[in-house]
Amino acid sequence: MFLLFHLPVGLGCIFVQYHLYYILIGFSDFKSCLPQQELIRTVDLGPFKHIVDDGLELRKAAFECVDTLLDGCLDQVNPSSFIVPYLKSGLDDHYDVKMPCHLILTKLADKCPSAVLAVLDSLVEPLQKTIHFKPKLDAVKQEVDRNEDMIRSALRAITSLNRISGGDCSLKFKNLMSEISKSPTLWDKFYSIRNE
To answer: What is any Pfam family matched here (predicted)?
Structure first.
């Protein structure tokens, strides 16, 4: 359903934009953006168990749809009702969901700064976890590179949040910026992203 909706909105279809309210009701108020326990299962692979999340692709598609909505129909979407709990949950989710959420947060910081400022404290913790995450010592190069991409994506979102006037009112965000400035590795990445 999300993929069918994605194309007409992306192309600026007037019919979809006109009926957006009714379409969004059909999406159950973005509940597809949250992890659903009934879609998570454990697969027994002999000596170890593997967790499979069958809802991952659905959440990823939902956030990509939201990203498209922000580009084409921002005036018909209430970003304040979306940021918490949906975006906050996405920022603390799987890699494939975090990446579009960082992009959404960057766009919201630029287009709706007051809505982001209102909940900035609640967004700091998942961003903090992401930039401080360390892969296992025996991680393959692909996992290390993927983690670096995720850190850069989070730092790009933090850079956008840092540009919001009034962001210094959040003590948690000020502490996060202080942590970044004290870490030479993170500061170098942050500085290069800020100057892009």
So the answer is: TIP120
In which residue are the tokens 């989070």 written? 154
Instruction: Report if pTM > 0.90.
Output: no
Question: Cα–Cα distance between 97 and 135 in angstroms, integer?
Answer: 18
Q: What is the mean pLDDT of residues 42-51?
A: 82
- CB burial readout 46-78, b (16+ within 10 A) else e: eeeeeeebebbebbbbbbbbbbbbbebbeeebe
State the sign of the Cα–Cα–Cα–Cα dihedral 62, 64, 70, 73. Answer: negative
Q: Mean per-residue pLDDT for 58-66? A: 83
φ and ψ at residue 135, rounded to 5 degrees: -70, 165
CA atoms of 74 and 58, how far apart (whole Å): 22
Residue 41, token pair as written in the block: 């299962």
In whole angstroms, give the CA distance from residue 144 to residue 137: 10
For residues 42 and 49, is the Cβ–Cβ distance under 8 A?
yes
